[in-house]
Amino acid sequence: MNYLTLYRQWRPQTFSEVVGQKNTVTGLRNAVREGKLAHAYLFFGPRGSGKTSVAKIMAKAVNCSQPGSGEPCNTCPACCDINNGSFMDVLEIDAASNRGIDEIRDLREKVRVLPAQGKKKVYIIDEVHMLTTEAFNALLKTLEEPPDSVIFILATTEAHRVPATVLSRCQRYAFTRLSISEVIDRLRDVAAQMQINVTDQALELMARRSNGSLRDALSIMEQCIAFRDHDIDESQVMDVLGLVNHEALSAIFKGMLEQKIEEVIVHLNSLIKQGKEPVQIARDAALCARDLMQYTVLNKRADLLVMPGEDLEEIISQYPGLTASRLSQVTKHLLKLADELRFNEGQRFIMEVGFLEAMEYMADSKSGSDKALVVQETGKQKKPRRGGPDPSLKWEEIMEKVKSIKVTTHALLVPAAMLGLADGVLTLGYRPELKFHREKMEEKVNQEVLLSALEEVLGYPVDVELVTLEETAEQPQVVRKAIEIFGKDKVKIIE
Ligand SMILES: Nc1ncnc2c1ncn2[C@@H]1O[C@H](COP(=O)(O)OP(=O)(O)O)[C@@H](O)[C@H]1O
Ligand SMILES: [Mg+2]
Ligand SMILES: [Zn+2]
């Protein structure tokens, strides 16, 4: 059996089957019905929007022996032969191939020969912008004195690369990128006819990721069908595409917004463990930043590519200082990173540094106010950092106070080292193996207990900052790089 890729198998066969492109389709159908055909057409627009498909429908419609209302019948010998590629008077030329250029050269004589089989000879010249100057000139000569029995259909994704002399001889039709909902509807149709169950979320994800190209969307669905062992759901689409799920993206962005290097690195590590490629991680993060940017500006009207609106809503409400201009810098930076990673597959280090750099753009997003950022390398010194009164004398008292409010909070604080108070920030250090304690102490309930104990004992409110103590002198490369980027006193050293 001949294997046809899904997108070929589901090529629209009539004008009315074409998704979107309403004006184009109506215009062409009317022209066929009324016999008002031009000698040359130019179809331009993004890939996978239906240019080649419509060209073939047009070729059938003008040769069909029983065209009702401008549509090809798809049953007469001409339609059938065109459909299976054996019709002598429909010629497809791929301008991108060498053979295409030779074919254009011969065109001038060949177009004079009357159609052998049908009513019209139809030349479909795909990727026409790829023609050489010489070939364009040959084509132009033919277009200047076109024989009545010939129709040219030129198709291109890059109309601006077609010489004006050629453009002006063509009736031009713009093909537009299909909308997400148009793509979804078509995918749902195809799946239903193939009796394959696909969840709505999976359909939506495939549509979003195909960027308005139905061809790409159908290719994605085809891969999912090949790998499926049950109904197709969102997570399967993510696996097939190697995508990063939006929970992980949210977590990475929150880490960046909180200026928590360790959060960011931990989440990146776990994505790598799941087998995601650094380039895909960077690309998805760029899309996430872009979605955030749209959402800050357009809110519910945003056209989101990867992130659900609720996730964005949550992030934005927590970080009022997050502006569109900041996000556009982040987007740009992450796109550049993805580009860099394309040529450096597997370079985790570049990815990590790239994310740390992106983080820099996010600083101060929390409130717009200049909340004191993070710490310095901690080592073993227990001196207060930037001067300020040393509350170590009162530490026992503070601990007692904590204990009287909440015993479990006290337990979490026992193994912490009091590193000092500076600029209204009290710093506590945990050894790397006490990660659990540290994380629990980050939680709001425990923070509140400590803050109120501090205020009560010291007589004024202070902020608390938790850091992990680094015991070995040797720093991983990524940390050294982080220090290089942010400056030593902005970097918190983690295990
Ligand atoms: N507007 C559309 N309506 C229906 N199917 C489409 C449309 N655009 C693309 N497709 C699907 O994608 C495949 C490739 O489309 P094609 O016409 O070759 O796009 P283009 O020439 O614009 O790149 C088709 O076989 C069809 O399955
Ligand atoms: Mg095409
Ligand atoms: Zn027909």
Sheet with most strands: strand arrangement:
2-3-4-1-5
Chain-averaged pLDDT:
85
Provide the CATH top-level class of the largest domain.
Alpha Beta
Order of helices and strands: HHEHHEHEHEHEHHHHHHHHHHHHEEHHEH
Report the total helices.
22
For the termini, the CA-CA separation is 58 Å
The CATH topology of the largest domain, please? Rossmann fold
Tell me, briefly, the overall form.
elongated
Bound molecules: adenosine-5'-diphosphate, magnesium ion, zinc ion
- Characterize the largest beta sheet: strand count, sense, and whether it forms a barrel: 5 strands, parallel
Which segments are poorly predicted (pLDDT under 50) over 5 or more consecutive residues?
A: 369-389
Give me the count of strands. Answer: 8
CATH superfamily descriptor of the largest domain = P-loop containing nucleotide triphosphate hydrolases
* Number of self-contained structural domains: 4
Classify the helix fraction into a percent range.
40-55%
